[in-house]
Amino acid sequence: MTGTPVHRRTTAVTDGERTAVPKSPARRAGRPGARRYTRRDLVLLGVLLGIPILLDLALIWGPTLASVGLSFTTWDGVGDIRWVGLKNYDDLFTSYPQFWPAVRHNLLWLAFLGLLAAPFGLLLAVLIDRGVRFSRFYQSTLYMPVVLSLAVVGFIAQLLLSRDQGALNAVLGGKNPTDWLGDPGINIWMVLLAACWRHTGYVMILYLAGLKSVDPSLKEAAAIDGASERQAFFRVVLPTLRPVNVIVGVITVIESLRAFDIVYAVNKGRNGLELLSVLVTDNIIGEAGRIGFGSAIAVILLLVSLGFIVTYLVQELRGEEQR
Amino acid sequence: MVQSTFSGSEAHGEAAGRRMSRRSLLRGAALGAGAVALPSLLTACDSGPSGVTMGSNASDAVPKKAFAAAFKAYEKKSKKTVRVNTVHHESFQENINRYLQGSPDDVFMWFAGNRMQYFAQKGLLSDISDLWRNFHGFSDALKKQSTGRDGKQYLVPYYYYPWAVFHRKSVFRAKGYEVPRTFDEYRALAKQMQKDGLVPFAFGDKDGWPAMGTFDYLNMRANGYDFHIALMSGQKAWNSPQVKQVFDLWRGLLPYHQQGANGRTWQEAAQTLAQKKAGMTVLGLPHPGQQFSVADRADLDFFPFPEIDPAHGQDAVEAPIDGFLMSKKAKDKEGAQDLLKFLATPHAEDIYLASDPNNIAVNSGADTAAYTPLQKKAVQLVAGAKQISQFMDRDTRPDFASTVMIQAIQQFLNKPDDINGLVNDIERQKKQIFAAG
């Protein structure tokens, strides 16, 4: 996988080390040479591969194509399905006041998690990895929010930030308390902070695991070659962490596009906290039953996701070729 | 995992062990699949003829207990069983579409007005006109609210609760406030309260619906009940001068409303009234009472929303009716009808209200002797009403209320000055939604 080529590219020291490690030769010798598949194996393989493929088709591709199809219709979930062409998209772009704010908020979410939370998580990981005092304590404290679901984070945010009964305003006091979660100009930032709080811990633990596996001799070699600590980190350590970087990138994109539970817990994703996922839910689930219209929003979300997925895959495949 | 210093037979054992584990893994997977499928099979099986099923959205403690008492009385009387499936109040509403198309309960709790007619029109409810012929004690207004657009009856009304302006008697007495009758007096009173250091109107709209009550009353007082109904059914334009006037009147009152309404629940708003920090609030009968301590409850009072246009006076009262419907797919139709017949009797309502005195019985034969003074006053309010409206989210289409109006009103509360842009936005969306049919 992606881990081994990095090793191969790096200095000969590691390669030498690798061959030096005795690799249980007895077991390797014990394996049968050429694989021959019996009929039973083929059936088993067919079943084991077939079930996931069928499930994939039924649970992922089926609904996806159905959504795309429904987005060109109007349907309330009960009566007839009527074809309306691109009308849903037209309505969406021109006269659905919540749509553009939702797109903006999703992108803001991505930027915030990607440019703030992830680097901050890396910073914390590096600090802890270098062995500050009480690093175990910091590690567990910072990781704690990750075990909470975002809906719970939303409830905690309410306890802290509610205008009249929140802890923050009780501490700040003052005659005109700030409405942290009710003011549409502020609440998105507060929710992003809360999401960030959780995401940072997640990213930190991933990088921490990555950093622990970086070969110390790499850093030593860099130091001997006269690299400053900064250079050593950015030129040597960070490239070694490429697999972790990819994972962090992927989870950041996923987290920002599927963001839903925290805003739904705070105020059902209205009044400044609109997100595409919330609009889909509002229109399709709920009493509304505007399934065609909601599907159109879902298709937009799909297109945005596809943009990221395709970019990622192209990068990965190209990277594979180069190596 | 296994050290390879042992002999060949050991290696055999290892291979056998691996095959065993693969087989047992498959077996485990099959069992797992069975475990997933089994409960749904079981639920499919247990739809035996063991009584009527009741879908309940009464998930709060007080109404849940009260309904249980009423159903128990029916079980005792009829020797039949009622199996109640209680679902969280908001979730029940949100899932109603899927619920009614899936395998709904025989009878379920719902609301009167458009919100019921919408589902009747979709053919998801059972016509109970036959039962209605033998019902007694329901007024014509109630019958109208229980009737679908096809002229047939679908709902058995159970109780209602009027909306009004709530306040504390002791606060009014201490400060010498008078109950306002006209809008000018209302505004003057609000101004005076602000001068006295009170928040004139406790106000929370985080859930999206509470502010609809204020809109409805302003609209019905300024433009009348008929306009309200026409507007809600999509016949009148939202960017008409009448609607703009309503928002404009509201904007004039907003400085007297509690700030930051979009971040506050109605419960928190009602608490400021209970704490005597606020002077008044526009809510429904059960709402403020729940937030008052038992000792303070007698201090709670209300007055009808003041008059704006003398032509409409204080004619209309917003009094949402809750009741029971029979689903089209009911399995035990006779049992369901028998239960509905019972629920339409004044006795059934008495039992409910004994445990939940925050509502009013709809049947004129119900026993009002045990009513609190507030309940009695509420009865008078509705009895004196020339028209009874339900509520914005019950008088209009559910999709319009939930995807357009909640957001529009919250936007208005954030930016009250752009009324033209707001009503044009609403009208554009209204046309799309009502055109969808």
Give the uncertain stretches of chain B in residue-range form: 1-20, 28-48
If helices are DSSP runs of H or I spanning 4 or more residues, what is the number of helices of chain B? Answer: 20
Our Rg estimate of chain B from Cα atoms comes to 27 Å
Average predicted local confidence, pLDDT of chain A: 84
Beta-strand proportion of chain A: under 5%
**So what's the CATH class of the largest domain in chain B?**
Alpha Beta
Shape of chain A: globular
Percent range of helical residues of chain A:
over 70%
What is the oligomer described by this structure?
heterodimer
- The fraction of residues in strands of chain B falls at 5-15%
How many β-strand stretches of chain B?
12
- Largest interface, counted by CB within 8 Å of the partner chain's CB: A-B, 41 and 42 residues
Task: Give the CATH architecture of the largest domain in chain B.
Answer: 3-Layer(aba) Sandwich
SSE pattern of chain A? HHHHEEHHHHHHHHHHHH
Distance between the termini of chain A: 11 Å
Tally of distinct domains of chain B: 2
Widest sheet, order of strands of chain A: 1-2
Structure summary, number of beta strands of chain A: 2
CATH superfamily of the largest domain in chain A: MetI-like
